Amino acid sequence: MNLTLKIWRQKSPKDKGQIVEYKVNDISEHMSFLEMLDVLNEDLVAKGEEPVAFDHDCREGICGMCSLHINGEAHGPDRLITTCQLHMRTFKDGDTIFIEPFRSKAFPIIKDLVVDRSALDRIQQAGGFISVNTSGNTQDANAIPIAKAAADESMDAATCIGCGACVASCKNASAMLFMSAKVSQYALLPQGRVEAADRVTNMIKQMDKEGFGNCTNTGACEVECPKGISLNNIARLNREYLKASI
Amino acid sequence: MSGYFSSSVGRKFFMALTGLFLVFFLLVHLIANLTLFFGADSFNATAEFMGTNPVIQVMQPLLALGFIAHIITGIILELKNNSSRPIKYTKNNVGANSTWMSRNMIITGLMIFAFLALHIINYFIPIKTTHVENHYELVVGLFKNPIYAGIYVLAFIFLGLHLMHGFQSSLTTTGIRQEKYQKCIKTLGTIYSLVVALGFISIAVWFHFA
Hints:
The complex is a heterodimer of chains A (246) and B (210). With 246 residues, chain A is α+β, with helices and mostly antiparallel strands. Helices cover 35% and strands 11% of the residues of chain A. Chain A has 2 domains: 3-111, Roll (Ubiquitin-like (UB roll)), CATH 3.10.20; 117-132 and 143-245, Alpha-helical ferredoxin (Fumarate Reductase Iron-sulfur Protein, Chain B, domain 2, Orthogonal Bundle), CATH 1.10.1060.
């Protein structure tokens, strides 16, 4: 298929940036979206032009590195996938596709479609962990009985890959779905309860410092999340923070 | 606790609490207004009760504070949220992932605020500053005015849309939401919003044409 791409090009963080139009031809419907961009970049390099910079790593939906706001949605129009799992069969011959970086004050653009998502790492570092002794005498995790429902819910929250689609989709550029997944995965387990109050307090403090917006429960994040993290986690985060503050 | 209310989550909690307080108030107000259907005597008795009952007198300044707090916090949050994405998307397919109501709380909110101002000028100030003998006549007189009745209907459409998202949103923010309650919360929110909006609208339409 032949496509028209409207891609955000920005030379550097300080550059103003603009949408530039490109044509790609003979794209196979079996290609992933990133492979289609690879084809474009090969064309650009062959013509002596600067290739489009975009993030990618594992290309199998695990690492959370690929971003991209495609035709107005984080990771494109399909559900429960990352951009590397988006296939060109989702589009039709002759389509025009808008490709923009994840936009948020907390995600400054580095180049073209590449944004700095280390704000999410700093939130994680502020409390998204449990302090356990790893010196060789670690207790067997299975020695602590955990209700199946709690273990399942915790695991569901832990599937968050920190890609930032929630921030990109939210009209307020809020990171609450990410935050709530990271808080929930520990809050639901006995090992996580010990530091629960400090964790949620410190992580929210960091989140606010990074310049993310406030959650207004529109639910856009939940729809666009490649891992289907539920808004129920946000309610849990709110409960945890209230409990920690009283 | 001071740290709590200066955080993003705490401010939202405050927004939700004041919202839920107003949700309760609207229901009381609607019940009072519905007595219009029972004729002048019962509505005048209701107005008399609202004007003299000590509990209502204590609640009135609290209600004013609730409104002011909800509006100011809402505007502060909106400004912060707007600044969190300084460069907007060229193409943003928001309809694919969220409802119009949830994205436009500030618009529906400001419309309700505009109506509130009109309502205070047209009804609340006259009854507080002058001795109104017949509340029924004053209210029904206002509904006879086509412009006022039109604005009234429009305002309550905005209110219904505001509540449609606000009701369930406040229960998420206050942490009441859980998987097992969510269906019930959504249904309850829709019923509540429809009852309140259609309740007030039916009064305006009935007395305009009656």
